[in-house]
């Protein structure tokens, strides 16, 4: 017996209501680990997508473009071609139901399908992360970093410095942004950040975020206030001009340059002050000459009458307000917005890289094994919710430690260390132990001070520097002592220090 259209409508409303209750129930549970948080977010996102799909189907049913819903309601009311007969329609429907169950005696009516929906709360969606991303805790920008340091717009810097630079494309000189290589780099960077953001924050509406960024960008672009592109294309109050920028580094022959088309070649030649006439091949050959030959060394026959020789070579030195330039500026705006949303992740990534640089190979292996053991223990945990209103630390049995033990060890006491970047340590034990850990050792190494026992309990940078100066003075390091180290020779060739020589001379012995 096929379901009627009204029954499909009722079942769809029930499905939407069940999914909404599951979303509320899932979000009421606080995930204990980052992995559980990701699973929860993706489960909720999947259920929301199911709700949206079902709602679209309901909208189509209620619009009733084919009139099937209207006909079904009329049939339930007993309206037929011969007239209206409610009882006849009722008994016909009852006969159809009895006939169905007579032919299918084993058919059962499912009263409750709650268990099927409850299984959705136990799903663990598969989320792909690289080894460097650490289940969404860190960014993996090594490929983009290599492209940056090997490009014309980049500079040879360390990976940690790149993590501070990549989120600020507006600081790159505008002349270096006119190449196709820079635009492709921005597109790859934006693509990776979007992919990472969708995996780690699936409940965020990225389309709405980008829509707001685009609207704000259009307003700022019109007013010439886009960061890094202020007053773009306007110099001395003159109106902006459109010029085509062609990066000749991407073309090895004049034939390949012909692909850009005759009009772009003509505009590029005009911007360089060269002749714009001839066939497309002649234009390409004339423009290709500027790749390896400075303009001042070109034959005057290639220049248009009354033109001046530009200072740059191979790239149009003209204001750029074309569609390509605007697209580059919009890509930069989107990247800055994503970097603002991923600010905590960027900080964690930088700290993780610095941590790895301070660890030895044996320490890195030990930490990797510890992470594997922790991942296995997390996967074996029960799904029971642990009541922990005081946010007490977990003990060896996976349960909160007793409150009296928490107070005994002073785990509610916070210690901050300025040398560790104002990092907080909870409890006296953790505070004393951190002086031998990588973070404090790295901070002391940056200050140029050896991390010895003399500096235990020193957490202020100023106090550490003063103590190091006193130690150097006490040990006589870098201190000139003329009374003991300055030497004098008498007439007989005897050597004395300044103090002894002065005393003998004062007594008239020498």
Helix content: 40-55%
The amount of beta strand, in percent, is: under 5%
Give me the side-by-side strand order of the main sheet: 1-2
Number of H/I helices: 21
Largest sheet: 2 strands, antiparallel
Task: Give, in order, the helices and strands.
Answer: HHHHHHHHHHHHHHHHEEHHHHEEH
What is the number of E strands? 4
Q: So what's the overall shape?
A: flat
Structural class: mainly alpha
Question: Whole-number average pLDDT?
Answer: 78
Q: How far is the first residue's CA from the last residue's CA?
A: 131 Å
List the uncertain runs: 233-243, 310-321, 378-383
CA gyration radius, whole angstroms: 38 Å
GO biological process, one term: mRNA splicing, via spliceosome
Organism: Anisodus tanguticus
GO cellular component, one term: spliceosomal complex
Keywords: Metal-binding, mRNA processing, mRNA splicing, Nucleus, Phosphoprotein, Zinc, Zinc-finger
What's the quick description here?
The chain is mostly helical and 510 residues long. Helices cover 52% and strands 3% of the residues.
What does this structure look like?
This protein is mainly α and 510 residues long. The chain contains 21 helices and 4 strands. The strands form 2 sheets. Strands 1-2 form a two-stranded antiparallel sheet. Strands 3-4 form a two-stranded antiparallel ribbon. A hairpin with a 5-residue loop joins strand 3 (487-489) and strand 4 (495-497). Helix 7 runs antiparallel to helix 14, helix 8 runs parallel beside helix 13 and helix 11 packs across helix 12 (280-288). It is flat and about 145 Å long. Mean pLDDT is 78; it is low at 233-243, 310-321 and 378-383. Residues 415-446 form the Matrin-type domain. Belongs to the SF3A3 family.
